[in-house]
Amino acid sequence: MSARSLIRRFACQPLDIALHTPFGISGGAQAMANNVLVTVELDGGFVGHGEAAPLPPYNGETQAQAMATLKAAQGWLVGRPVDDWRALAEEFRQWGGAACGSAQCAFEMALLDALNRRDGVPMWKFFGGAGTALETDMTVTTGTPEQAAADARAIRERRIRLIKVKVGGPKGAAYDLARLRAIHEVAPDSPLILDGNAGVSRADATILVKGLRDLGIKPALLEQWLAKDDLVGMKALGEESGWPVAADEAVCSGADAQKIADARAAQFLNIKLMKAGLATALDIAAVAKRTGLGLMIGGNVESILAMTTSACFAAGQGGFTYADLDTPLFMASNPFQGGFALDGGNISVAHITAGHGVTPA
Length: 361
Prior knowledge:
Blueprint lengths: L6 E19 L2 E15 L4 E6 L3 H4 L3 H15 L7 H11 L5 H19 L3 H4 L6 E3 L2 E3 L4 H13 L5 E4 L5 H15 L5 E4 L6 H14 L5 E3 L7 H11 L3 E3 L6 H10 L4 E5 H4 L1 H14 L2 E5 L5 H14 L2 E4 L12 E2 L3 E3 L2 E3 L10 E2 L1
Parallel strand pairs: 5-6, 6-7, 7-8, 8-9, 9-10, 10-11, 11-12
Antiparallel strand pairs: 1-2, 2-3, 4-15, 13-16, 14-15
Helix pairs in contact: 2-4, 3-4, 6-7, 7-8, 10-12
């Protein structure tokens, strides 16, 4: 371990990346990744980078909110000791990060990248070293049945096996069933993860389950169909369908994870670093492992920087059954160098030797 380090420089700037097509979920669509790039430099000259990826249709956070939170932190962060990174992360959270999870995440990501680069430790090893590989899905976002079929066909042409489908929203269950029928026709052997982003009503959930059975589709996972506080409905959905359920919007802290475990409301927890940062993600993973819940790693509309950090987290921790780390494939350009290696749906971080391995191009 190197000598005690201090933050010498802390900076943030907008990170706007165009998408090939809008990324639509039940709560709305985003045509561009309006993110924030964070830089932390330690007094030894070691530099780390982090990314905030707010997604307004997901939880209401915006780029402006993330920028304001991060800019306001510059004054008190410079000169602070960093070796007890969790203590500093908690101070950031208490100071203002709790109101903007993506800003909290970007700070912690940049801080750990700088520390791991200082110490010559790859982030996947820092997070436990359990492994270096994951299999990601790719998402069919909201859209017409014709577009869903075309997207599913393109996913299979990329040699990605798992397909995630966004469901829910104002067009209702019948529209989603038409989309799912179209996907199943072109990719009948692909396991489907059906993600409602808390936008499916109980009534539409009943229609969807019946319709899926009629179509002969057995989903691999039902991800957060119902409102995030409807744990009773979540549990009933799993029991009545017989299909595994994942909590996403419902789990933003270790306490949330414990509540879900106690209620037996889900079989999987989807950890997204953007919800509340990396320290909180560790807390959620610890609860899942203690209570026997399965794990999924996901994200917002993130570049290779944040997605590689998530891959290092999940591979290093181990025990993640599902990975949803596909959004770099939706981006029209890549302003970075480095990051995870992708072969079909297979992700590897084995080549990363220090930090998350991603730097601005």
